[in-house]
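Researcher: Structure for this, please.
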Amino acid sequence: MDQEIESLHDNLLALGNFKRRIAKSVRNAIDHALNGPVTGYYDIDDLSKPKKSTIGVSVEDYIRFNFEELGRSHHLDFKLGGIDFDCKYSISRGWMIPEEAFGEICLIITSDDECSTFKVGLIRTERDILTGRNRDKKRGISSEGVSNTKWIHRGEGLPRNVLLNLDDQKMSRIREKDSGQKRITEFFRVAQEVPINLRALKTVAAPKDNRQAARRARDARETLEDEDIKVLTGGQSDHTEAARAAGVDLPDRWRVSVPARKVSGYDV
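Model: Predicted structure, token format:
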């Protein structure tokens, strides 16, 4: 048993909302790389290889932002409770370890955006579990090494990428509209009972229209009223309660469209 890993594991969980904050950091990093409001991208597979490689650096940056309790290490990424550790993210679980982290503790993270899942765990990168060597002298982790990871979380919890989870037919209906307003209205029409954040609305609206996404969402609400579809906004108590009655947990500032009959008892 690695006592430093055990201690770090307990200290990380003691920070409070550790899993939620890691998931938020990963979501932020992926969205930053996609830059949907400018590029229209919502799928990591659409990114170039160099762009994909920036996600790992962004995950570290967002973890530093979302975990003010973590200190800076002199030779690795973070320090907590006197223990230095590195942080490595990989889309494909192909974590690459730099020389300065050989034999050190690494917080390894991976995610599946389509399934809204992520994994985060701790591993000691001893040389006997490291494989290969790329031109930057970084080495991978063997499957045996990964199997010895002390996982902190494995499963659901990554904030949902709404657009990636829409089927092709629904995406086609959205894309065929010839204006940002029409695309946002169609988005609410075809993706009912699914919470939608402002970034997704901006991505659908396209670059020329994304600054007006919030206003266009309000206009869509008025249009869809005539179709007996209600568009609710999280953070407004009556809307949040109505969404809950319709079976939807609606975060603040997110929006959701629901059949009017499901919220007929609410003044929304």
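Researcher: Any notable elements?
Model: The chain has two domains: 3-156, 168-262. The first strand starts at residue 71 and ends at 72.
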